Design the sequence.
């Protein structure tokens, strides 16, 4: 196996991380361990374009923030990325694209999106990754990629379960983004096989 | 209006759109006072999306440099008030207020729509011009102008916001539709929509945004100057055209049938011992309001309103009705109707025993504030001429009689018609400034200073102003070089957020923008008093330190922009302070000889963390919450119990009466052998418990529930604190943040850590919640160490310790 690393935008995926990502059919991936989720995130980040909206859903600790960290690294963000639970919105300047990281955990009504400044940004500028946005998905625009993260219940007991990622795109950019992520993960698989 | 016929240098800028527009010009008032003559010396206009706060002050300095001038030459500041991006407008206005306060300069506001129309005029356009400014969310700010050789003339009253298709429809229906030449940044999205409706004449895209020169010309035109204001920086506010979404949605709901809530029963206010609250009138209030109206107006010629009339008002648009209530009892009502840029006050009634408490004044302030946000520029009312008390109140608020209607209330009973410019001169209820724009004499009187006063000020250097606007308190403090706090002012917005169950970011940003000048003046006056001199001036300061983060981005930028403007104009230093470090420093108010290393717990509505303070400025975050903050958990539980917002004081008051062992709630991560916290599970357990008891039909023992919940929080906090202190082998422990005001938590720390010989410092109650005195301590340290920030500094909403 090659010990060279796989390029993902402004960052590279270590082979150890690459081995933790699995393609399980179009729009379905499995990662084992945080490094796998980070690697998948970096592939997502490398595919992002201006105006893209990605809504991440999953329980606490599912890996939403970790996925965002990978995406940020691929965009060339060097500052630390944490969940902006209290502040709702974090802005990270990438090399060529601004990443808006939202955590809507504290909101309980779509009416609050405007006053929290979410609607001024999502789909308007930069690329937006939205955690805890599943309850407000419709208000976040029709063109987006929803990614649901679940724990694999078939994982051996006592072990940190693998994470299953399932994409549901809508609209032209959402679909393009899903296709791009699919082909990136497949390319990563081929790279490992080579 | 300041005397500037002789000519002065004006600095003008606009950050309402994606374009940063800035110009420096000479400005001479025309002898007839009808507009000013201007000559642009230098300008800079460039695309600047989201970087307005970074670029604005450096750009001002650069343009002044190109014009061969400095900040000291500036005699007038002009700012674009929007409409546009709310945050963009606030960056411009807060910076302009800072610049103005830096040297007591007049500040004029100009409409950004007018500036775009003037841009078209400067570009050679004549005839009918339609400005379409992007209002986001599918909406635009439309404005139609007639351009002749003298300049553009508005064909509309006040700015407003419309759904794009509706705006297109309005102009398409005009008989002269085909001759409208379109411009404005709204065309980036909606040019096609206008074209489909037959509006195809479009000005070149490089004219779509305001320029520095067009902004100055808009302000210097006779109409622009008439609307520019008095020069008082407190009164220059953004043009929003709408309330925050939270308020808009609330207004929509108020007219609907809604079940009685705790807001109307008042049980939360009783528990929290909160008196005299204001809130918008709802359908549930109309019966009580009608009774009040009858009681108040029984002996007067004014006909009381019926419940049906009040109910009808709630379903009308352009209305604002507010009630005052005290622990469930309705004690006052006021309402108004916005028509053609003016708000007509329809009714003001305060219960007899509650007169002379300033209730009518506060209610009118709310009604007219809403009206101003909806575009009103003045208030009008009619009053029975013999009602001396009411007439005196209105006169104190700035109303003057414009007409008399003889015999209006019957033979010999005249009505006075009065009006007043907005905002009203409401003043402040107590020694705390309201988070609203205040009308007061301007410019401030600056008596010449004695030699002693100058020496006192010199002896107190470096004097540093601290500014805090990270959440819902607009706070400023002044500190002397020896660490004495000379002034400490907090304008809390809690009244404006409480009824929404939490801090509404858009409202917080608006209130900071309104309060910032008043809080600054109050802090400078207090500092002068402490030194035995007249109010301090910005040029007396060595530096201004401002909370740069963490916090709500829209709130932070107001304090940062104001501070940068102030620093640039007064020629003083600038320091960016970490809010969390401020909370650590607040412990010095309790234990002045506190020295690192020590362990600190920061617990607030936004943070829950344990920090190893190795040295001042050298921090290791040992662990923090992985979900909710402690303060948030208190708020959520209070909400589930219908106890209102904020939850901390009510829960802790209830808990004092309850049994902390009554209900076994989970202690999350108690044995995780690290310093992570999790409050989400506890919150869920409490809510599940409440629902289960409700289903079983058992009454909830509120004190027991509160005490048990609070004990579950405290157990984990204290246990982890103890482990941290022992693991770091330290014997000092400190606390910071709003939750540190919780008496049970304070005493649990003192007891459990005290047993182990650890000295526990808990800041005084007033220093636990957000304040600027703690920011001042950090700022002074940095000033003394020469660690100053650049004027390109921006807010850092996610700044960690």
Sequence:
């Amino acid at each position: 196996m090659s010990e060279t690393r796989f390029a993902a935008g402004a960052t590279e995926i270590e082979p150890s991380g690459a081995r933790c990502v699995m393609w399980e059919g179009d729009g379905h991936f499995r990662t084992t361990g945080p490094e796998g989720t980070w690697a998948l995130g970096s592939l997502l980040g490398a595919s992002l374009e201006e105006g893209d909206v990605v809504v991440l859903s999953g329980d606490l600790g599912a890996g939403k923030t970790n996925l965002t960290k990978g995406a940020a690294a691929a965009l060339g963000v060097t500052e630390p990325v944490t969940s902006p639970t209290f502040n709702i919105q974090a802005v990270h300047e990438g090399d060529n694209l601004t990443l808006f990281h939202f955590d809507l955990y504290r909101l309980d009504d779509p009416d609050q999106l405007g006053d929290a400044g979410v609607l001024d940004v999502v789909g308007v500028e930069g690329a937006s990754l939205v955690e805890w946005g599943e309850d407000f998905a419709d208000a976040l625009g029709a063109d987006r990629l929803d990614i649901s993260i679940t724990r694999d219940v078939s994982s051996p007991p006592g072990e940190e379960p693998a994470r299953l990622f399932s994409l549901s795109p809508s609209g032209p950019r959402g679909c393009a983004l899903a296709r791009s992520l699919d082909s990136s993960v497949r390319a990563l698989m081929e790279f490992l096989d080579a | 209006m300041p005397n500037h016929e002789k000519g002065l240098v004006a600095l003008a800028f606009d950050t309402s759109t994606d374009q940063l527009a800035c110009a420096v010009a000479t400005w001479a008032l025309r002898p007839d006072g009808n507009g000013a003559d201007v000559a642009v010396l230098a300008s800079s206009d460039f695309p600047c999306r989201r970087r307005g706060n970074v670029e604005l002050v450096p750009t001002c300095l650069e343009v002044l440099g190109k014009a061969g001038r400095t900040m000291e030459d500036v005699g007038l500041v002009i700012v674009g008030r929007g409409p546009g991006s709310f945050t963009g407008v606030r960056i411009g206005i807060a910076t302009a207020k800072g610049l103005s306060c830096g040297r007591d300069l007049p500040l004029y506001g100009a409409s950004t729509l007018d500036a775009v129309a003037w841009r078209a005029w400067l570009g050679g356009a004549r005839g009918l011009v339609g400005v379409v400014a992007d209002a986001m969310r599918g909406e635009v700010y439309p404005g139609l102008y007639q351009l002749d050789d003298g300049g553009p003339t508005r064909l509309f009253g006040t700015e407003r916001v419309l759904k794009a298709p509706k705006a297109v429809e309005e102009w398409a229906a005009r008989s002269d539709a085909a001759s409208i030449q379109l411009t404005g940044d709204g065309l980036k999205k909606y040019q096609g929509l206008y074209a489909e409706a037959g509006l195809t004449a479009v000005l070149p895209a490089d004219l779509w945004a305001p320029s520095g020169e067009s902004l100055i010309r808009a302000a210097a035109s006779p109409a622009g100057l008439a609307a520019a204001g008095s020069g008082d920086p407190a009164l220059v506010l953004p043009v929003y055209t709408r309330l925050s979404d939270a308020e808009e949605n609330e207004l929509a709901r108020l007219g609907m049938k809604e079940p009685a809530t705790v807001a109307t029963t008042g049980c939360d206010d009783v528990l929290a011992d909160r008196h005299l609250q204001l809130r918008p009138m709802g359908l549930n209030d109309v019966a009580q309001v009608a009774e009040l109206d009858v009681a108040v107006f029984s002996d007067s010629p004014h006909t009381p309103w019926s419940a049906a009339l009040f109910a009808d008002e709630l379903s009308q648009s352009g209305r604002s009705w507010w009630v005052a209530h005290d622990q469930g009892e309705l004690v006052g009502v006021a309402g108004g109707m916005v028509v053609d840029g003016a708000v007509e006050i329809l009714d003001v009634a305060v219960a007899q025993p509650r007169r002379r408490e300033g209730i009518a004044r506060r209610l009118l302030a709310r009604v007219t504030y809403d009206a101003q946000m909806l575009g009103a520029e003045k208030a009008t009312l009619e009053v029975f001429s013999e009602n001396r008390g009411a007439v005196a109140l209105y006169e104190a608020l700035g109303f003057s009689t414009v007409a008399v209607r003889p015999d209006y209330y019957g033979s010999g009973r005249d009505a006075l018609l009065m009006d007043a410019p907005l905002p009203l001169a409401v003043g402040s209820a107590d020694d705390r400034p309201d988070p609203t724009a205040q009308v007061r004499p301007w410019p401030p009187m600056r008596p010449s200073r004695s030699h002693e006063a100058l020496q006192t000020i010199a002896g107190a250097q470096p004097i540093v102003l601290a500014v805090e606007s990270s959440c819902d308190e607009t706070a400023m403090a002044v500190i002397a070089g020896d660490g004495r706090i000379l002034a400490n002012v907090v304008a809390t917005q809690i009244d404006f957020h409480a009824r929404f169950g939490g801090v509404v970011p858009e409202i917080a940003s608006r209130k900071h923008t309104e309060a910032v000048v008043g809080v600054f003046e109050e802090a400078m006056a207090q500092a002068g008093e402490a030194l035995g001199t007249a109010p301090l001036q910005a040029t007396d300061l060595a530096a201004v330190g401002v909370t740069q983060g963490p916090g709500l981005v829209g709130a932070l930028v107001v304090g940062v922009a104001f501070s940068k403007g102030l620093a640039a104009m007064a020629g003083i230093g600038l320091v960016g302070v970490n809010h969390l470090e401020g909370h650590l420093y607040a412990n010095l108010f309790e234990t002045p000889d506190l020295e690192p290393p020590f362990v600190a717990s920061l617990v607030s509505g936004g943070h829950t963390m344990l920090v190893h303070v190795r040295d001042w400025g050298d921090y290791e975050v040992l662990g923090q919450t992985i979900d909710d903050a402690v303060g948030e958990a208190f708020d959520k539980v209070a909400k589930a119990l219908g106890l209102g917002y904020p939850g901390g004081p009510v829960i802790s008051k209830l808990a004092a009466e309850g049994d902390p062992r009554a209900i076994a709630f989970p202690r999350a991560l108690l044995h995780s052998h690290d310093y992570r916290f999790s409050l989400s599970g506890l919150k869920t357990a409490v809510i599940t418990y409440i629902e289960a008891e409700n289903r079983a039909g058992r009454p909830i023992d509120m004190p027991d529930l509160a005490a048990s919940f609070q004990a579950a929080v405290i157990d984990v906090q204290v246990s982890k604190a103890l482990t941290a202190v022992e693991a770091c082998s330290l014997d000092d422990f400190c606390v910071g943040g709003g939750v540190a005001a919780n008496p049970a938590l304070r005493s649990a720390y003192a007891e459990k850590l005290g047993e182990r010989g650890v000295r526990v410092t808990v800041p005084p109650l007033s220093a636990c919640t957000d304040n600027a005195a703690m920011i001042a301590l950090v700022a002074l340290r940095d000033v003394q160490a020469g660690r100053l920030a650049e004027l390109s500094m921006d807010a850092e909403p996610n700044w960690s310790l």
User: Anything to note?
Assistant: Chain A touches chain B at residues 60-61, 80, 82, 84-91, 98, 105-106, 111-117, 119-120, 124-125 (CB under 8 Å). The CA atoms of residues 101 and 191 of chain A lie 30 Å apart. The mean pLDDT of chain A is 90. The longest helix of chain A spans residues 171-193.
